[in-house]
Protein backbone atom coordinates (compact mmCIF):
# COMPACT_ATOMS: atom_id res chain seq x y z
CA UNK A 1 0.00 0.00 0.00
CA UNK A 2 1.27 3.46 -0.89
CA UNK A 3 1.68 6.01 1.88
CA UNK A 4 -0.16 9.22 1.03
CA UNK A 5 2.41 11.39 2.74
CA UNK A 6 5.39 10.05 0.80
CA UNK A 7 6.36 10.69 -2.82
CA UNK A 8 6.78 7.50 -4.80
CA UNK A 9 9.14 6.96 -7.70
CA UNK A 10 7.70 5.27 -10.76
CA UNK A 11 9.87 4.14 -13.62
CA UNK A 12 9.58 1.46 -16.24
CA UNK A 13 12.11 -0.82 -14.66
CA UNK A 14 10.47 -0.50 -11.20
CA UNK A 15 6.92 -1.28 -12.37
CA UNK A 16 5.36 -4.62 -13.04
CA UNK A 17 4.10 -4.47 -16.59
CA UNK A 18 0.66 -5.86 -17.49
CA UNK A 19 0.56 -9.02 -19.52
CA UNK A 20 0.53 -8.72 -23.32
CA UNK A 21 -3.15 -9.65 -23.67
CA UNK A 22 -4.27 -6.94 -21.25
CA UNK A 23 -1.90 -4.46 -22.87
CA UNK A 24 -3.35 -5.17 -26.32
CA UNK A 25 -6.90 -4.69 -25.02
CA UNK A 26 -5.95 -1.34 -23.46
CA UNK A 27 -4.16 -0.35 -26.63
CA UNK A 28 -7.16 -1.15 -28.84
CA UNK A 29 -9.66 0.62 -26.60
CA UNK A 30 -10.43 4.07 -28.02
CA UNK A 31 -10.37 6.99 -25.59
CA UNK A 32 -12.39 9.88 -27.05
CA UNK A 33 -11.45 12.36 -24.34
CA UNK A 34 -7.75 11.69 -24.72
CA UNK A 35 -7.97 12.08 -28.50
CA UNK A 36 -9.82 15.41 -28.26
CA UNK A 37 -7.53 16.86 -25.58
CA UNK A 38 -4.47 15.77 -27.57
CA UNK A 39 -5.65 17.64 -30.66
CA UNK A 40 -6.64 20.90 -28.96
CA UNK A 41 -3.69 21.06 -26.55
CA UNK A 42 -0.21 22.35 -27.21
CA UNK A 43 2.47 19.76 -28.00
CA UNK A 44 6.12 19.33 -28.93
CA UNK A 45 5.16 17.73 -32.25
CA UNK A 46 2.77 18.43 -35.11
CA UNK A 47 0.77 15.27 -35.74
CA UNK A 48 -0.25 14.97 -39.38
CA UNK A 49 -1.93 11.58 -39.87
CA UNK A 50 -1.30 8.02 -38.75
CA UNK A 51 2.27 7.80 -37.52
CA UNK A 52 3.41 10.80 -39.59
CA UNK A 53 4.46 13.79 -37.51
CA UNK A 54 6.76 16.81 -37.60
CA UNK A 55 9.01 16.78 -34.55
CA UNK A 56 9.76 20.23 -33.21
CA UNK A 57 12.96 21.46 -31.51
CA UNK A 58 13.12 21.19 -27.72
CA UNK A 59 15.03 24.07 -26.11
CA UNK A 60 15.66 23.73 -22.37
CA UNK A 61 17.69 25.65 -19.84
CA UNK A 62 18.96 23.41 -17.06
CA UNK A 63 22.18 23.04 -15.08
CA UNK A 64 23.29 26.51 -16.22
CA UNK A 65 23.35 25.45 -19.86
CA UNK A 66 21.03 25.32 -22.87
CA UNK A 67 19.97 21.91 -24.19
CA UNK A 68 18.68 21.67 -27.77
CA UNK A 69 17.44 18.47 -29.38
CA UNK A 70 14.55 17.13 -31.45
CA UNK A 71 11.35 16.11 -29.68
CA UNK A 72 11.56 12.81 -31.61
CA UNK A 73 14.00 11.63 -28.93
CA UNK A 74 11.15 11.92 -26.42
CA UNK A 75 8.39 10.40 -28.52
CA UNK A 76 10.55 7.45 -29.57
CA UNK A 77 11.44 6.55 -25.99
CA UNK A 78 8.11 5.87 -24.32
CA UNK A 79 7.92 4.33 -20.85
CA UNK A 80 5.11 3.38 -18.51
CA UNK A 81 4.29 3.63 -14.83
CA UNK A 82 1.36 2.89 -12.55
CA UNK A 83 -0.19 5.96 -10.97
CA UNK A 84 -1.71 6.29 -7.49
CA UNK A 85 -5.08 5.02 -8.79
CA UNK A 86 -3.48 1.88 -10.20
CA UNK A 87 -3.89 3.02 -13.79
CA UNK A 88 -1.16 2.68 -16.40
CA UNK A 89 0.24 5.96 -17.72
CA UNK A 90 3.05 6.74 -20.12
CA UNK A 91 5.83 9.28 -20.15
CA UNK A 92 8.87 9.97 -22.32
CA UNK A 93 12.49 10.10 -21.28
CA UNK A 94 15.67 11.35 -22.91
CA UNK A 95 19.06 12.71 -21.84
CA UNK A 96 18.16 13.22 -18.18
CA UNK A 97 14.72 14.76 -18.86
CA UNK A 98 11.22 13.33 -18.79
CA UNK A 99 8.09 14.59 -20.54
CA UNK A 100 4.69 13.91 -18.96
CA UNK A 101 1.53 15.38 -20.51
CA UNK A 102 3.77 17.63 -22.68
CA UNK A 103 5.44 19.17 -19.59
CA UNK A 104 9.17 18.60 -19.31
CA UNK A 105 10.93 17.90 -16.01
CA UNK A 106 14.33 16.77 -14.82
CA UNK A 107 14.44 12.99 -14.52
CA UNK A 108 14.32 11.64 -10.95
CA UNK A 109 16.55 8.54 -10.90
CA UNK A 110 15.49 7.77 -14.43
CA UNK A 111 11.77 8.10 -13.90
CA UNK A 112 8.73 10.06 -12.78
CA UNK A 113 8.28 10.93 -9.11
CA UNK A 114 4.63 11.33 -8.13
CA UNK A 115 2.93 12.30 -4.91
CA UNK A 116 0.83 9.30 -3.91
CA UNK A 117 -1.92 11.52 -2.46
CA UNK A 118 -2.34 14.16 -5.16
CA UNK A 119 -0.85 12.36 -8.16
CA UNK A 120 1.15 15.47 -9.04
CA UNK A 121 4.65 15.27 -10.48
CA UNK A 122 7.39 15.95 -7.95
CA UNK A 123 10.18 16.20 -10.51
CA UNK A 124 12.03 19.51 -10.69
CA UNK A 125 10.75 21.74 -13.50
CA UNK A 126 13.10 23.14 -16.12
CA UNK A 127 12.84 26.32 -18.17
CA UNK A 128 11.22 25.30 -21.44
CA UNK A 129 11.74 27.61 -24.45
CA UNK A 130 10.76 24.95 -27.00
CA UNK A 131 9.17 25.68 -30.36
CA UNK A 132 5.82 24.00 -29.68
CA UNK A 133 2.84 23.46 -31.98
CA UNK A 134 1.22 26.71 -30.87
CA UNK A 135 4.45 28.68 -31.36
CA UNK A 136 4.76 27.16 -34.84
CA UNK A 137 1.18 28.22 -35.59
CA UNK A 138 1.96 31.78 -34.47
CA UNK A 139 5.06 31.87 -36.69
CA UNK A 140 3.11 30.54 -39.69
CA UNK A 141 0.34 33.11 -39.10
CA UNK A 142 2.87 35.95 -38.89
CA UNK A 143 4.61 34.71 -42.05
CA UNK A 144 1.30 34.65 -43.92
CA UNK A 145 0.55 38.17 -42.67
CA UNK A 146 3.93 39.42 -43.89
CA UNK A 147 3.47 37.79 -47.29
CA UNK A 148 -0.06 39.15 -47.73
CA UNK A 149 0.58 42.72 -46.64
CA UNK A 150 4.00 42.78 -48.32
CA UNK A 151 2.38 41.82 -51.61
CA UNK A 152 -0.42 44.36 -51.16
CA UNK A 153 2.05 47.14 -50.26
CA UNK A 154 4.17 46.42 -53.35
CA UNK A 155 1.00 46.48 -55.47
CA UNK A 156 0.04 49.94 -54.21
CA UNK A 157 3.59 51.16 -54.75
CA UNK A 158 3.68 49.98 -58.37
CA UNK A 159 0.15 51.09 -59.29
CA UNK A 160 -0.34 54.42 -57.58
CA UNK A 161 -3.74 55.89 -58.35
CA UNK A 162 -4.86 52.77 -60.23
CA UNK A 163 -7.65 50.39 -59.39
CA UNK A 164 -6.56 47.51 -57.11
CA UNK A 165 -5.83 44.16 -58.71
CA UNK A 166 -5.46 40.60 -57.47
CA UNK A 167 -4.84 40.36 -53.75
CA UNK A 168 -5.26 44.13 -53.42
CA UNK A 169 -8.88 43.91 -54.55
CA UNK A 170 -9.57 41.31 -51.85
CA UNK A 171 -7.76 43.05 -48.99
CA UNK A 172 -8.82 46.65 -49.61
CA UNK A 173 -12.55 46.14 -48.77
CA UNK A 174 -11.56 44.35 -45.55
CA UNK A 175 -9.17 47.13 -44.52
CA UNK A 176 -11.76 49.79 -45.31
CA UNK A 177 -14.37 47.76 -43.42
CA UNK A 178 -12.25 47.81 -40.24
CA UNK A 179 -11.58 51.53 -40.67
CA UNK A 180 -15.08 52.70 -41.63
CA UNK A 181 -17.27 50.25 -39.69
CA UNK A 182 -15.15 49.51 -36.61
CA UNK A 183 -12.51 52.14 -35.86
CA UNK A 184 -14.23 55.41 -36.86
CA UNK A 185 -17.67 54.71 -35.29
CA UNK A 186 -16.04 53.45 -32.06
CA UNK A 187 -13.13 55.87 -31.65
CA UNK A 188 -13.96 58.85 -33.84
CA UNK A 189 -12.64 60.06 -37.19
CA UNK A 190 -9.93 62.25 -35.63
CA UNK A 191 -8.33 59.53 -33.49
CA UNK A 192 -9.12 56.34 -35.41
CA UNK A 193 -5.95 56.39 -37.54
CA UNK A 194 -3.84 56.28 -34.38
CA UNK A 195 -5.21 52.83 -33.50
CA UNK A 196 -5.64 51.40 -37.01
CA UNK A 197 -2.27 49.55 -37.13
CA UNK A 198 -3.09 47.60 -33.98
CA UNK A 199 -6.72 46.95 -34.94
CA UNK A 200 -5.78 45.71 -38.41
CA UNK A 201 -2.96 43.55 -37.05
CA UNK A 202 -5.24 42.03 -34.41
CA UNK A 203 -8.10 41.37 -36.81
CA UNK A 204 -6.01 39.67 -39.48
CA UNK A 205 -3.85 37.76 -36.98
CA UNK A 206 -6.89 36.24 -35.27
CA UNK A 207 -8.68 35.55 -38.55
CA UNK A 208 -5.73 33.86 -40.25
CA UNK A 209 -4.89 31.88 -37.09
CA UNK A 210 -8.50 30.68 -36.94
CA UNK A 211 -8.43 29.65 -40.61
CA UNK A 212 -5.11 27.83 -40.04
CA UNK A 213 -6.77 25.70 -37.37
CA UNK A 214 -9.45 24.57 -39.84
CA UNK A 215 -7.09 23.26 -42.52
CA UNK A 216 -7.10 19.44 -42.25
CA UNK A 217 -4.01 17.21 -42.12
CA UNK A 218 -1.55 19.91 -41.06
CA UNK A 219 -1.55 19.30 -37.33
CA UNK A 220 -4.79 20.78 -36.00
CA UNK A 221 -3.44 24.13 -34.84
CA UNK A 222 -5.42 25.80 -32.06
CA UNK A 223 -3.58 29.13 -31.76
CA UNK A 224 -6.41 31.40 -30.63
CA UNK A 225 -7.86 28.58 -28.53
CA UNK A 226 -4.75 28.72 -26.34
CA UNK A 227 -5.13 30.85 -23.21
CA UNK A 228 -1.54 32.08 -23.27
CA UNK A 229 -2.05 33.58 -26.75
CA UNK A 230 -5.38 35.24 -26.03
CA UNK A 231 -4.01 36.44 -22.68
CA UNK A 232 -1.25 38.36 -24.49
CA UNK A 233 -3.73 39.87 -26.95
CA UNK A 234 -6.06 40.92 -24.13
CA UNK A 235 -3.12 42.29 -22.10
CA UNK A 236 -2.06 44.49 -25.04
CA UNK A 237 -5.63 45.83 -25.30
CA UNK A 238 -5.56 46.55 -21.55
CA UNK A 239 -2.21 48.35 -21.78
CA UNK A 240 -3.27 50.51 -24.75
CA UNK A 241 -6.58 51.37 -23.08
CA UNK A 242 -4.85 52.29 -19.81
CA UNK A 243 -2.23 54.46 -21.51
CA UNK A 244 -4.80 56.14 -23.76
CA UNK A 245 -7.17 57.01 -20.92
CA UNK A 246 -7.69 60.76 -20.56
CA UNK A 247 -8.75 62.83 -17.56
CA UNK A 248 -12.43 62.39 -18.37
CA UNK A 249 -12.05 58.58 -18.54
CA UNK A 250 -10.18 58.21 -15.24
CA UNK A 251 -12.44 60.73 -13.54
CA UNK A 252 -15.52 58.64 -14.28
CA UNK A 253 -13.79 55.51 -12.97
CA UNK A 254 -12.11 56.82 -9.82
CA UNK A 255 -14.62 59.51 -8.79
CA UNK A 256 -17.84 59.42 -10.89
CA UNK A 257 -19.39 62.90 -11.13
CA UNK A 258 -22.96 63.48 -10.10
CA UNK A 259 -23.12 60.35 -7.94
CA UNK A 260 -23.97 60.55 -4.20
CA UNK A 261 -20.98 59.93 -1.94
CA UNK A 262 -22.25 56.69 -0.36
CA UNK A 263 -22.90 55.24 -3.83
CA UNK A 264 -19.37 56.16 -4.95
CA UNK A 265 -17.90 53.78 -2.37
CA UNK A 266 -19.86 51.00 -4.08
CA UNK A 267 -19.50 52.15 -7.68
CA UNK A 268 -15.75 52.93 -7.73
CA UNK A 269 -14.61 49.37 -6.82
CA UNK A 270 -16.94 48.01 -9.51
CA UNK A 271 -15.49 50.42 -12.10
CA UNK A 272 -11.93 49.53 -11.10
CA UNK A 273 -12.75 45.81 -11.30
CA UNK A 274 -14.23 46.48 -14.74
CA UNK A 275 -10.82 47.62 -15.97
CA UNK A 276 -9.59 44.04 -15.56
CA UNK A 277 -12.83 42.23 -16.29
CA UNK A 278 -13.15 43.69 -19.80
CA UNK A 279 -9.86 42.28 -21.19
CA UNK A 280 -10.51 39.06 -19.24
CA UNK A 281 -13.82 38.66 -21.05
CA UNK A 282 -12.05 39.29 -24.37
CA UNK A 283 -9.60 36.49 -23.58
CA UNK A 284 -12.19 33.94 -22.40
CA UNK A 285 -14.67 34.65 -25.21
CA UNK A 286 -12.13 34.11 -27.98
CA UNK A 287 -10.55 31.04 -26.36
CA UNK A 288 -13.86 29.36 -25.54
CA UNK A 289 -15.49 29.93 -28.92
CA UNK A 290 -12.55 28.66 -30.97
CA UNK A 291 -11.86 25.68 -28.72
CA UNK A 292 -15.55 24.73 -28.62
CA UNK A 293 -15.65 24.53 -32.41
CA UNK A 294 -12.69 22.16 -32.49
CA UNK A 295 -14.18 20.02 -29.72
CA UNK A 296 -17.54 19.68 -31.49
CA UNK A 297 -15.96 18.54 -34.75
CA UNK A 298 -13.61 16.13 -32.95
CA UNK A 299 -16.50 14.78 -30.87
CA UNK A 300 -18.32 13.68 -34.02
CA UNK A 301 -15.14 12.05 -35.30
CA UNK A 302 -14.89 10.20 -31.99
CA UNK A 303 -18.54 9.18 -32.26
CA UNK A 304 -17.84 7.35 -35.52
CA UNK A 305 -14.88 5.51 -33.99
CA UNK A 306 -16.79 4.57 -30.82
CA UNK A 307 -19.71 3.08 -32.75
CA UNK A 308 -17.26 1.50 -35.20
CA UNK A 309 -15.83 -0.55 -32.34
CA UNK A 310 -19.31 -1.88 -31.62
CA UNK A 311 -19.72 -3.11 -35.18
CA UNK A 312 -19.27 -2.16 -38.82
CA UNK A 313 -23.00 -1.48 -39.35
CA UNK A 314 -23.16 0.86 -36.35
CA UNK A 315 -20.00 2.63 -37.49
CA UNK A 316 -21.28 3.22 -41.02
CA UNK A 317 -24.75 4.19 -39.79
CA UNK A 318 -23.49 6.83 -37.40
CA UNK A 319 -20.68 7.81 -39.75
CA UNK A 320 -22.97 9.15 -42.48
CA UNK A 321 -24.78 11.52 -40.14
CA UNK A 322 -21.58 12.52 -38.36
CA UNK A 323 -19.78 13.36 -41.58
CA UNK A 324 -22.67 15.49 -42.82
CA UNK A 325 -22.79 17.36 -39.52
CA UNK A 326 -18.98 17.77 -39.52
CA UNK A 327 -19.16 19.34 -42.99
CA UNK A 328 -21.87 21.71 -41.74
CA UNK A 329 -19.80 22.56 -38.65
CA UNK A 330 -16.72 23.15 -40.80
CA UNK A 331 -18.47 25.81 -42.87
CA UNK A 332 -19.99 27.27 -39.70
CA UNK A 333 -16.50 27.46 -38.21
CA UNK A 334 -15.33 29.40 -41.29
CA UNK A 335 -17.96 32.02 -40.42
CA UNK A 336 -17.05 31.92 -36.72
CA UNK A 337 -13.37 32.39 -37.59
CA UNK A 338 -14.24 35.74 -39.15
CA UNK A 339 -16.83 36.73 -36.54
CA UNK A 340 -14.51 36.13 -33.59
CA UNK A 341 -11.79 38.24 -35.20
CA UNK A 342 -14.37 40.97 -35.86
CA UNK A 343 -15.85 40.86 -32.33
CA UNK A 344 -12.43 41.01 -30.64
CA UNK A 345 -11.39 43.96 -32.84
CA UNK A 346 -14.71 45.75 -32.35
CA UNK A 347 -14.60 45.43 -28.55
CA UNK A 348 -10.98 46.59 -28.48
CA UNK A 349 -11.97 49.65 -30.54
CA UNK A 350 -14.88 50.36 -28.19
CA UNK A 351 -12.53 50.25 -25.19
CA UNK A 352 -10.13 52.64 -26.94
CA UNK A 353 -13.00 54.96 -27.81
CA UNK A 354 -14.28 54.94 -24.26
CA UNK A 355 -10.82 55.82 -22.95
CA UNK A 356 -10.29 58.71 -25.36
CA UNK A 357 -13.72 60.34 -25.60
CA UNK A 358 -13.99 63.92 -24.45
CA UNK A 359 -16.39 65.23 -21.84
CA UNK A 360 -19.83 66.18 -23.13
CA UNK A 361 -21.25 69.50 -21.97
Automatic annotation (TrEMBL):
Q: Which InterPro entries does the UniProt entry name for this protein?
A: ATP_synth_F0_asu, ATP_synth_F0_asu_bact/mt, F0_ATP_A_sf
The GO terms this record gives for MF are: proton-transporting ATP synthase activity, rotational mechanism
Quote the subcellular location field of this record. Cell membrane; Membrane
Q: Which domain of life is it from?
A: Bacteria
Q: What's a Pfam family in this record?
A: ATP-synt_A
Primary localisation category: membrane
One GO CC term, this protein: proton-transporting ATP synthase complex
Regions that span the bilayer: 135-156, 198-219, 225-244, 292-316, 323-352
Which keywords are on file for this protein?
ATP synthesis, Cell membrane, CF(0), Hydrogen ion transport, Ion transport, Membrane, Transmembrane, Transmembrane helix, Transport
Q: How does it sit in the membrane?
A: Multi-pass membrane protein
- Check the record and name the PANTHER family matching this protein: ATP SYNTHASE SUBUNIT A
**Family according to the record:** Belongs to the ATPase A chain family.
Describe its function.
Key component of the proton channel; it plays a direct role in the translocation of protons across the membrane.
What name does the UniProt record give this protein?
A: ATP synthase subunit a
Can you name the source organism?
A: Cryomorpha ignava
The gene behind this protein is atpB
Amino acid sequence: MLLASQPVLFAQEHTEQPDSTQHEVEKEKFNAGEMIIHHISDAHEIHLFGDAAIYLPVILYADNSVKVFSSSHFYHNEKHFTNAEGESEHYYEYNGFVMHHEHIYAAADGGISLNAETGEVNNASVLDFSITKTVTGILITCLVLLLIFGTVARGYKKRKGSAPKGLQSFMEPLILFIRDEVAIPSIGAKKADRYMPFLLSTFFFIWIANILGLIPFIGGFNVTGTLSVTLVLAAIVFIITTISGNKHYWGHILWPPGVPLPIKFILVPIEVAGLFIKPLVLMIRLTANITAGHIIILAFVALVLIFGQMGAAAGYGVGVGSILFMVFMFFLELLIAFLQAYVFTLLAALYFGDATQEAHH
